[in-house]
Amino acid sequence: MAEQAVRWSRIRGIVAVALCAPLLTLPLFCRAAETDPLWARSQAPVKSLMLSPIARPTEFHPGEWQLALSVNPASIFATDKDPNNPELPYQFELDYYTVEYRVDLRYNPSERWQISGSYAHRTTDDAHLDQLTLSFHKLFGLDQNGRTKVPKHRYLIDLIESGQRLEDFGGETFAHQFELAASFLAYRYFRHQLAVTLSAQYNDQRYLQRRGSEWDGGLQLDYSYEWRDHRLNALMAYTHTGADQLLGSATRKDLGHFGLGYRYRITPRHFLFTEYLISQGALRDLGAFNDPVHEANLGYRYQRGELGLDFVMMQNALNADNSADIAFNFRLSYRFDAD
């Protein structure tokens, strides 16, 4: 009997280990997801045509790679035309869809360094977001800004001062964008981390004219603080664009960007995010495009092992004409070790 009791005790031990092993290893697999902020780029009409900083990680796991694919549909509607008096003079009217297809690759050579690169194909594919935008604005009592008085699914860029008027350009390529970045963990103490990132982007502009150099560069600081299931992150960035003109208007060459984000871990697999981003207006002489860009993001992440799935809704705030009416980010990522 004693020998049988020992045997059953061993069996129960093996079963317990087998059942608990996935739970014990799950935090290790999900650790990277806990440290990553939202990886969603701005879809604002001008900001998206140049280097646009995003919140970046401040914790790097040596030897780890990450490959990610994302799709970012957006609805652009911006005008200073009076919807009640359309015969009055105006400067601009923009009404179209954009869809950005992007692939990201990141590698951590050490716990201090991260190297990343991405390629984006920006198109004017039909995103069918007009009705959703109208319903969203109506639900939350937001100003439609004259959208109800124009046809849905238009493709129009009308710039009065530069004499540009483009119509029916659905399916065109706005730009091919190539970005390289190197991040360095400069400070780490207890729950506090601070990383520095140097980045450069080459813009192969196609349908929309870009005068000047195709290169943009940036320098940014990312700070994070984690406590239990909560994580706070902040970014401060400076970018310089080589473009002299975009949308027929002179650019502001040097721009400041600021952001604040929060992540809550619901379970080891489920995360909620919120983020608010502010950037200086990039165009000097085109009405609202000289004003700051305000963007509010709400996101969800599902992480199962090395596989991650992100969904982000991006909404303009304060200055409706200088950011996308509404945009989404769908991102699939996979992590693997160099070994």
Helices and strands in order, then pairings?
Layout (H helix, E strand, L loop, with lengths): L1 H34 L28 E16 L12 E16 L5 E11 L6 H10 L16 E4 L4 E4 L5 E17 L2 E14 L4 E18 L2 E17 L2 E2 L3 E14 L2 E10 L13 E12 L2 E10 L9 E12 L2
Antiparallel strand pairs: 1-2, 1-15, 2-3, 2-4, 3-6, 4-5, 6-7, 7-8, 8-9, 9-10, 9-11, 11-12, 12-13, 13-14, 14-15
Strand content: over 45%
- Order the strands across the largest sheet as they lie in space: 1-2-3-6-7-8-9-11-12-13-14-15
Largest sheet: 12 strands, antiparallel, barrel
Low-confidence stretches: 1-30
Number of helices: 2
Domain unit count = 1
Number of strands: 15
CATH architecture classification name: Beta Barrel
**H/E series, N to C?**
HEEEHEEEEEEEEEEEE
| Overall body shape | globular
Provide structural commentary.
The protein is mainly beta and 339 residues long. The chain has one domain (28-337): Porin (Beta Barrel), CATH 2.40.160.40. 13% of the residues lie in helices and 52% in strands. The chain has two helices and 15 strands. Strands 1-2-3-6-7-8-9-11-12-13-14-15 form a twelve-stranded antiparallel beta barrel. It is globular. Residues 1-30 have low confidence and may be disordered. It holds the Pfam family DUF3187.
